[in-house]
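Lab manual, section 2.4: Encoding a predicted structure.

Procedure: take the sequence of the chain (384 residues), apply the prediction step described in section 2.3, and record the output as structure tokens. A sample record is shown.
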Amino acid sequence: MKAAPALLLALASVVPNVPNALFSAETNRPHFDLVRQLNEAFVQVAESVSPAVVVLTVTEKAPVFAEPTNLPGTNRLAPHPRFHHFEDEPLEGKGSGIIIRKDGYILTNGHVVEDAEKIQVRLLDGRTFTATVRGVDTQSDVAVIKIEADGDLPVARLGDSSKVRVGEFAIAIGAPFSLDYTVTYGHISAKSRGNVVPFFLGGQMMDQDFLQTDANIHPGNSGGPLVNIEGEVVGVNNMIQGMRTGIGFAIPINLAKDIAERLITHGKFVRSWLGIEIRALSDDPEVRERVKTIKSGVIVQSILPHGPAANSNLRASDIITAVDGKPVSTAQQLRNEIRGKLPGQPVTLDVFRSSKAMIIKVNPGEYTPTPAAFAPEVRPATTN
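Recorded output:
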């Protein structure tokens, strides 16, 4: 034990010399230049993106004895806690948003604004506006709001989330805990995270294809951008797993952009579905062992009795390998392909059944998030 003080003294005598060795020695100058370039890259991202980020102050009338909407283990970065409040007591909290069009359209999260009575928007330059809700899609948690401003507004550059790679830098900008325009950074920890929110707002959340990040995001970041080192928005911050865990989730910008465009044009997003419970073949070793000729696909675990597929030739235990010629290997990929189809417009499914390949036509229907849309038994599979 007596060696510990001596060790501490030795460290104390060495540490002060580290900066001189790092920053003064010519042999280390290239390393310092790299650090300085990286430092400047982060600064430029913060300076270029922040003008297109807005802080939302949301006021809503609390429901009587409202229960929390957060699920165990997750925090949807709500702008306020939804616990027991009395009727007529207003709730106020912060969220974030991203200006996506110079004429005042702002992308944010649905759970931030869907119950709002008033939304105040503040820009980095201090200007404030009152926003109106253009549309909310609960099944992706994407929303668009609109402000009226004189002149063009700064607009965020939207990237391509399909090109995001695990390990890349990820930078979050928002208003966590009312600390406006806070910038944090981390990495993209994973892609295509599904089943993060099994059930949401009374029905299953259909679109779950989250980017996972360890960038620090907290309540108030919700609706704000997750940005790459190029200053491009690749995700919309959405929720965290617990608190201070380093596990956060963002909606991929490709999905958010697609839904936002429909909300701007039509005020709502019409989502198609097949009414089947599905699971990736890769997630079912038993079936994969039996069907060795198929390397990837999506297993039909059941067909909901009142769903669109109930009127087709599709059967439980079928394996769907493609939708209109596009291969699918995960439940989310199948949902992505079906989501954008017009209700009633036939789709062609490549199906493998009892060692035989076949083609099946199905007419998707319009999805409505009601409890009646689901089978009474909760299954580990996901629904489409």
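Check your result against the sample. The mean pLDDT is 83.
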